[in-house]
Amino acid sequence: MSVGVWVSGSLLALGGILGASWYTQDKEKQIECLAKNLYFEVGNQGTAGMLAVSSVVINRINDDRFPSTMCKVIHQKRGGVCQFSWYCDGKSDIPPNKKIYQEKLDFVRKLLDNDRQWVDITDGATNYHANYVRPSWRKRLKRTTEIDKHIFYRWNKK
Q1: pLDDT tens-digit profile of 41-54?
Q2: Which tens digits make up the pLDDT trace of 80-133?
């Protein structure tokens, strides 16, 4: 199986954006994890916001410092803290608005479709935060862009 190539800052061609492990472990479950992440993290932001947050998950999958599937990346805890706050906020993880959730599912399926080409508009970001908070970890990373209500960061190139 192949999906669109994921290349920071350039047009994508056909090939594989992710290693084989992301879809070998229950593809539909992985798609649902990313769709829920978009639902709770992006809310009603536009396509750029959805693409940017998806980029972070995909960039993490492709980085050895992070887990190798969408669900594992999204559910990961570091130091007892969830990487995506909605997952540990004590609220239900079932999206209450089924129409908006279906829109997120449709977006994720298109994102991973063989016939689509995408650009990583975050320039390789593996982290982000809302623009109204200032987490201490941001000082250790390189800021790449701000999209909608989020500021994106990546590790410095080795």
Answers
A1: 999 899 999 999 99
A2: 889 999 999 999 999 999 999 999 999 999 888 766 677 899 999 999 999 999
CA-based angle 106:17:40, to the nearest 5? 40
Distance CA 114, CA 87 (A): 29
Locate the domains of the chain by residue range.
3-154
> pLDDT at position 26, please?
84
Separation CA 155–CA 158 (nearest Å): 9
Whole-number Å distance between alpha carbons of 120 and 55: 6
Determine the CATH number of domain 3-154.
1.10.10.2520
* Cβ(98)–Cβ(33) below 8 Å: no
Q: Which two tokens stand for residue 55?
A: 């980029």
Q: Which two tokens stand for residue 129?
A: 């935060």
- CA dist 114 and 14 (Å) reads 7
Residue type for position 6: W
